[in-house]
Write a structure and sequence with these properties.
mainly alpha
């Protein structure tokens, strides 16, 4: 009899548990499984996003490197161009200065020749005057001419 009462009690207990206790527990377990599953999906998605971000970052870095190299190359070309322009300008300026200097030297040389001619003519006239005025012997004439030449 006690055994039958225990079986009936146990059956009532199981029926009450199945009706009111197990459904909330099963629901809680099911919700927890869903949360865990969603969390795993979120982790996978985040991992994929990280991989995608890494790929994008490496692409951006590569593009930045290429742009930086282009800027450096452009700057080097501009530098070479500026150096070439400055060199060409310096050559032209050098040629102008040399031409001007040659012209100045030629003008000074011509001026010096002209002054030398004037002085020679003055000395020659003076020497000739002395020779004529003294009309001395050929030795004296020669010494006067040598003296005039030495003055030149």
């Amino acid at each position: 009899m006690t055994f039958i009462v225990q079986i009936i009690s146990f059956s009532i207990f199981v029926a009450i548990c199945m009706k009111w206790i197990w459904p909330p527990i099963i629901q809680a377990i099911s919700n927890r499984q869903k949360e865990v599953s969603d969390s795993l999906e979120a982790v996978k998605s985040a991992h994929q996003d990280v991989e995608l971000a890494k790929m994008n970052a490496s692409k951006i870095i590569e593009e930045a490197k290429l742009q930086a190299q282009e800027i450096v190359d452009s700057a080097q070309r501009r530098k070479a161009q500026i150096v070439d322009e400055a060199s060409e300008e310096a050559k032209l300026e050098k040629e102008r200065i040399l031409k001007r200097a040659k012209n100045d030297i030629l003008a000074e040389r011509n001026k010096a020749k002209e002054e030398l001619r004037k002085e020679i003519s003055v000395f020659a006239v003076e020497g000739a005057r002395k020779i004529i005025s003294k009309n001395l012997s050929s030795e004296i004439n020669k010494s006067l001419l040598d003296e005039a030449i030495d003055k030149l």
